[in-house]
């Protein structure tokens, strides 16, 4: 088999792995395989975090792949676990910190254990902050009204909505729910709404079919259990109606059919009544208005719970979890007000000390009036500088 000139040139230009490179790769592979699985889980967890900068890159350089990030994290860990903890500790979760402290830190290394404890405290603070910020964002979205409106929640969770709310609505209520005010919109807005409404109707139709199938399946299962129970009860009743001597000494009769014929004839006279198949009434006619309202509140409560626990797939939590604007503004404003009034009290105390003249005598009426006017000017100037008035302006 001959080799062409092009193939020879191509093979020459391809970068060949040197024995040193192969040895390094084998060493990395063997070292990684010798690490505990918990440590490898930490490395993989870090490699999936897009917020971590594993190494500085130029603008034109391609983005690091996950395998490259994994190698960087492994290299840092193998060189110095303390450097690894300083660099990546803030991105680890509670379980990772526990595994790292157990597997990578000596019991006598108090400094490293203290670092892990500090990261754990920060993690608890972070979890509390995220929880509070999501709650503040929830209250804000509820107040604005759009994101947690019935229409928007129905779009995000059509099957849950249909199960708890939609299947109990009348045609008139559905029409009122889907109504659209065309007075304050453009023609393109109307077209867009109609398109979205058609798509939503398709989604709700599928959700309705799914809920109906589950309801029918649940009803048939209950009916089968009821029938089985009836058959079992009839079987036990048949056993009770068979003569005792026929059951106890069955093999001693010369003609068993004659001996038990009376019991069989008696059983034939009491056939099992067949259950008539009747169409059940609509579900909306089976529950009261109060029960419907309870189900609606249950749906809203579940939607709020999904938002707070981070299960709302339509919401970008990065805009809330890392946003200090959603911190407890009431507490922050209260601290500012306390500081302001403390400063005001200090100024009043200083003013009371300066009410007397240098000779220790009280000022006359004219001086008091002038000082009163000056005090008013100072007070009004100070009041105008108050942060609440500045916000209103």
TrEMBL record:
Ranges annotated as biased composition (Basic and acidic residues): 351-367
Ranges for the CCD97-like C-terminal domain?
A: 132-343
Q: Which InterPro entries does this chain map to?
A: CCD97-like_C (IPR040233), Ccdc97-like (IPR018613)
Q: Where is this region: Disordered?
A: 1-35, 339-375
Instruction: Locate the compositionally biased regions of type Polar residues.
Output: 14-35
Highest taxon above the source species? Eukaryota
Pfam families, alphabetically?
A: CCD97-like_C
UniProt feature coiled coil, ranges: none
> What name does UniProt use for this protein?
CCD97-like C-terminal domain-containing protein
Q: Which organism is it from?
A: Lucilia cuprina
């Amino acid at each position: 088999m001959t080799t062409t000139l092009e193939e020879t040139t191509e093979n020459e230009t391809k970068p060949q792995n040197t024995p040193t490179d192969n040895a390094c790769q084998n060493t990395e592979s063997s070292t990684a395989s010798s690490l505990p699985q918990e440590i490898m889980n930490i490395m993989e967890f870090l490699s999936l975090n897009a917020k971590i900068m594993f190494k500085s890159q130029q603008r034109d350089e391609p983005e690091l792949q996950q395998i490259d990030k994994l190698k960087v994290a492994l290299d840092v860990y193998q060189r110095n676990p303390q450097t690894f903890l300083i660099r990546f500790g803030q991105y680890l979760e509670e379980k990772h910190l526990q595994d790292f402290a157990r597997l990578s830190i000596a019991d006598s290394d108090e400094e490293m254990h203290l670092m892990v404890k500090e990261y754990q405290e920060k993690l608890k603070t972070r979890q509390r902050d995220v929880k509070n910020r999501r709650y503040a964002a929830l209250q804000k979205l509820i107040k604005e009204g759009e994101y947690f409106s019935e229409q928007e929640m129905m779009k995000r969770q059509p099957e849950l909505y249909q199960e708890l709310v939609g299947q109990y609505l009348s045609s008139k209520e559905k029409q009122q729910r889907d109504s659209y005010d065309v007075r304050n919109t453009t023609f393109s807005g109307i077209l867009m709404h109609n398109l979205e409404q058609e798509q939503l109707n398709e989604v709700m139709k599928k959700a309705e079919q799914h809920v109906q199938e589950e309801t029918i399946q649940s009803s048939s299962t209950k009916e089968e259990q009821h029938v089985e129970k009836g058959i079992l009860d009839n079987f036990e009743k048949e056993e009770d109606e068979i003569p005792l001597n026929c059951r106890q000494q069955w093999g001693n009769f010369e003609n068993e059919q004659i001996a038990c014929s009376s019991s069989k004839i008696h059983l034939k006279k009491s056939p099992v009544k067949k259950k008539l198949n009747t169409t059940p009434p609509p579900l909306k006619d089976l529950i009261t208005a109060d029960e419907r309202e309870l189900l609606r509140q249950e749906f809203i409560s579940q939607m709020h719970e999904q938002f707070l626990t981070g299960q709302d797939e339509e919401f970008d939590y990065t805009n809330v979890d890392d946003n200090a604007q959603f911190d407890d503004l009431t507490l922050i404003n209260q601290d500012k007000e306390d500081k302001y009034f403390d400063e005001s009290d200090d100024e009043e105390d200083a003013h009371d000390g300066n009410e007397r003249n240098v000779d220790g005598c009280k000022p006359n009426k004219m001086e008091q009036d002038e000082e009163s006017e000056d005090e008013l000017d100072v007070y009004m100037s100070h009041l105008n500088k108050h942060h609440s008035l500045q916000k209103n302006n």
